Amino acid sequence: MNNKEWFQQAKFGMMVHWGLYSLPAGEWKEQRMPFIGEWAQSYFRIKNKEYNKLAGAFNPVLFDAEEWVKLAIESGMQYMVVTSKHHDGFAMFHSRVDQFNIYDATLCDIVQYSQTTMMRLLYSQYSMNIIMDEVMGISYKINQNS
Question: Are the beta carbons of 130 and 124 closer than 8 angstroms?
Fold first, then answer.
């Protein structure tokens, strides 16, 4: 069975979608976003230098990969999808290419912990990256009416 066939047969899984953007949780300097907080950096136009300071405070000490996987298995799930790198550029794994990652900030590696489990793991990574905003002058405008 190929991957596509397996995925269609599996049907039920968990999407683990969290990262550095969880800290501001849609709020910045006493302002609240009218929708989901994962785009806070873009919505509030937070400069990378300021936003990147959040990495020092992001320390998921209560994260327990085994507990999450156990819950998924007990619920009948066949897989988990981990967002390993979000559009803000913060990676949930150790990288020798870029120090803007959970390991360099906290010595924790979510992806590495997750790989020790008995669950089939899939990884997603955003191709659009806000870091390029300041480097290339690109701006991601969010529809504030959604």
Answer: no
